[in-house]
Amino acid sequence: MSKMPETKVPEAVLLPKKHISAEEVAAVVRANFEASIIEDEIKDEFVVKIDRKDLLSLITFLKKSDELKFDYLRCLLGVDRGEGLEVIYLPYSLETGARITVRVPLSKEDPVIPSLYGVWKGADWHERETAEMFGMTFDGHPDPRKLLLPDDFDEHPLRKEFKLEIEDETEPSQIKAGAETREPAAAEPCTTAGTETGIDLKSKPVLADEAVVGEVATDGFELSPGPDDKTFWINVGPQHPSTHGVFRMMLQLDAERVVDCIPHIGYLHRGWEKLTEYRTYLQVIPLADRLHYLNSIHDELVVCLAIENLIKVEVPRRAQYIRVLLFEMQRISNHLIWYASFGMDMGAITPYFYGLREREMLLDMLEMITGARLTTNFLRFGGVKEDTPDGFMEAAAEFVEVFPAKMDEYEQLLTGNEIVGMRSKGVGILKKEDAIELAASGPFLRASGIKFDLRKAEPYSRYEEFDFDIPVGENGDCFDRYTVRMAEMRQSLKIIKQALKKLEETVGEPIRADGVPKTLKPEGEAYARVESSLGELGCYIVADGSTMPSRVKIRAPSFVNLQALPVMIKGALIPDVVITFSTIDICMGEVDR
Amino acid sequence: MMWLGKMMWLVRMVISLLAMLTFIMVNSLVLMWMERKAVAHMQARVGPMRVGFHGTLQPIADVIKMLAKEAYIPGCVDPYIYRAAPYFVFIPTFMILVTIPFSANIVVRELNIGIFYIISILAMTTVGIMMAGWSSYNKYSLLGAVRSVGQLISYELPIGLATICIVMLAGSLKLSDIVASQKVLFGIHIPYIFLQPLGFVIFMVGAVAELCRIPFDLPEAESELVAGYHTEYSGLRFGLMLTAEYFNMFSLCAIAVLLFLGGWGGPLLPPVIWFLIKTYILIFGLMWIRATLPRVRADQLMDIGWKFLLPASLVNVVVTGMIVLLWR
Predict the structure, then answer these.
(1) B239 and B301 inside one domain
(2) Distance from C-alpha of B159 to C-alpha of B123, rounded to nearest angstrom
């Protein structure tokens, strides 16, 4: 059996090339927009508050500016300040590393703001979500339909007027009351005849696709093609083998070729962001596990980082190394699941089981240290919950020992396979410019040839002490996304080795910072972002000095990456759609929140 | 005493048909179990283990489950075509099987145009699949059916042409003659696979496509079309289609054995055992392929069929024809 060579990755320049400081950004913006700045402040980054009429000119200036080159929209969110609303824009520059926070206040009576769709297409879903959650109007948005909420839901849940009614589940009387209602009802005779149940099984029902066409048509879309048109619409999902959860898309097909695609999300929307407003800060951590359940440590981390920024606490180094170890373990396990389903979507069933086999080792290790396999609830503000248990280091050493050979096995199955090449090379291409425009991130972005990784660009958890490479792709097709992820697993293994060594050196050191109060009452605002397995995972927290956050916004990487789907699959065939969708690597728990 | 002779013939026919039907069913169960176990072990798992020794009774449990299921007919289907389709898929497999000789004297009804008959009947399955996909009134089913019709038609040609070479070499369409001619060539036992290696490859690739198995399982591509043309089928109708699928696998491998691997010829063991061993080895090969390869795309499938297999088989026919002409 010949040994597979490691996947070759092309050279690229690591972005950002430099790091422009907040002062420099402030100087440029102040010089050009002196008159329109309402107030500004220099913190980690330059925070500027402007009126909505100046928004477009400021953003366009930032994007066009030769010095700053803001080419990337990290995030966009709405906040309810009580007396008024606010939209916060977080542009970034992949080129210069410049950061800025643009705040635009809005009144609740007239919440209209110009849309940024014309500047960054990546603003599309962010704006739709913000609009429905806060009842805002983004003037000039080409597709102002609801995104996550049901069409008939007329309220705006993230406004402060919208209150959740949370029942106290521990109240014994209520449990009792619940039990009484659950008394078994008198058994009703089961009827099979259709007429008795009011449903006539014999009659011809409304065809599923006709109903769908009607439904979408009410959203302002003309779906039914003319009589001469050869195209037809097909509904894929939310229950479909390859939509990886409850994603749904409407495909307009000309025979098997895709003419148009309308994605629908929101089937798994749980109101995560609203729920956090009814939790104490510590209670947000276990809730964060439920975002991307294969990536829970990253979700916890991003919340912790934001809070740690606010309460200014230094995390001890042993805790940082444990964190890094867990991140990389989860990155590998996430990529393994991705590898498994990638094979499955192409019709190769064997990779599925191979991928799951090694993931099991990782989950066992995760269980040893955190006590859970998926919803870990392990990070704490200023550290981690527990130190490594006995036997953990041995298990980790064993994994490090066996994994490289397993990696070769995976690559043997798919990398050199002729059919995999035929299916994935040149399919689902995402061009460099489109990737930046749509604010893609993670392996998805790097496959398009952009060497940008937050672990290098803005190191957190002492990533700067670790030695690793950032694999990138060349063409941005499905095969590149595959090779990038495979190479990333090898890099993660390298980091795990280093982390294990550092853990051995720091045995007995503290794992939690001193001076973190039992009841947190931070005040201020912070945006933290980390490189999760899928891309840039961000968390914007607005803390008002009470025990509960006033607003938590999660910038989910797969939510943003998923926007690129229609761009990538125009003109492709149905099998290409499946495989392209699979290489985006999404998790509906995170997309819908 | 004419009527007695006719009665005897009738009784013999009925008994052998019943035997054949039993064989189809039992063989499908064996193949089902074999496929699950073989593929499971290739995929680092164990497969069914609970029912019987190493899950040997699992297929029986599956069949009982399938028989007990409600054969639900969706409201908007075309009822007659929908009901008839499974039979159009199943009956051709049976029609093919009755003409396949298991050894020199184990055969229900051997025809002197045997291989020609088999190739023509093979095309009938296409009709059944199209009926199923069309009548289901479901876009996924329809796409699956259209794909499979395209696929089956394009791959029947190479199969037919590969068979023609064997017919030229053997000088007969009758399967037992073809098997016999593989023994006497040059006075020693040489299966046609050594004379027709390209023909064998073409036949087997065509067979995989004809059977709609990975890497050519586009008509029922699970990750794209849910279950293709049989998405809307359940219960016994679904069971018939499944059985037909397994049985086509057996038939095509058996034909490959008869044409290329010397049929039932072999030392020591009884001929019928040799025949079954060879057939099952080929079937195992198909399962192996299934556990290894991903699926090709529809346009690539057509490329393989029309741009590679068809020219290759035409060249094969011409070369074989010239050699045969010169040899005689």
Answers:
(1) yes
(2) 11
Helix, strand, coil percentages in chain B from 3-state DSSP, rounded to 5: 75, 0, 25
Smallest CA–CA distance, residue A350 to chain B, in Å, is 5
Determine the pLDDT at residue B245.
Answer: 83
CA–centroid distance for A275 within its chain: 18
Sheet containing strand A551-555, edge to edge, reads A523-531, A536-544, A551-555
Please give the average per-residue pLDDT across A90-111, as a whole number: 85
Domain that includes residue B229, residue range? 80-327
CB A100 within 8 A of CB A45: yes
Q: Pick from B43, B68, B93: which residue ends a domain?
A: B68
pLDDT at residue A452, rounded to an integer: 86
Q: Tell me which residues of chain A, numbers 183 to 202, contact chain B at a CB-CB cutoff of 8 Å.
A: 201-202
Q: Output the pTM of the full model.
A: 0.82
Cis ω before A351 (30° cut-off from 0) = no
Asked if the Cβ–Cβ distance from B76 to A357 is below 8 Å, we say no
Q: Is A578 on the interface with B (CB under 8 A)?
A: yes
Q: How far apart are CA B264 and CA B256, in angstroms?
A: 12
Report the residue from B45, B295, B299 with minimal CB separation from A347. B295
How many residues in chain A? 593
The domains of chain A, with CATH numbers, are: 14-139 (3.30.460.80), 272-592 (1.10.645.10)
Q: For residue A102, what pLDDT band results from cuts at 50, 70 and 90?
A: confident
Looking at the structure, do residues B62 and B87 belong to the same domain, yes or no? no
* Distances, alpha carbon A215 to alpha carbons A129, A222, B181, in Å: 20, 10, 67
